[in-house]
Amino acid sequence: MPKQSAGLLMYRRRNNELEVFLVHPGGPFWAKKDSGAWSVPKGEYEEEEDAIEAAKREFQEETGFAAEGEFIELGAMKQPGGKKVAAWAFEGDCDPKDLRSNTFTMEWPPRSGRQMEFPEVDRGGWYSIPAARELLNKGQHAFLDRLLLHAAVM
Asked: In this structure, what CATH number is given to the domain that contains residue 65?
């Protein structure tokens, strides 16, 4: 069974424009990647877990911010690597400089025998929809489209 993740796309309105909060993955593999590397805060969950609850947990673990309010289902997408990602949107606000992520440990440099700790997310930011399309992993672009459809009827 392919891996599955759940995430939350926080949005806000600034000067009559919709902005979304995206995160950049931490660790050495992503350090020099920008365009197409950013993501909705998300994480893997087990089959028996409730996806929305996993999404809330992962959002808090990766950002340090609590997710509260009305959650709008954005559906699920299959990313190019095969992972299925389900997402919900919610209206909120945060200051990216206050982001606090959990960490993971991996061998670095490869085959060195040294274990190093890295943040799961090394930074986050607010972006207009056009800017978000440039930064966001292509497998998650449909979440922006679905948010825009919902915003049109709000």
From this structure: 3.90.79.10
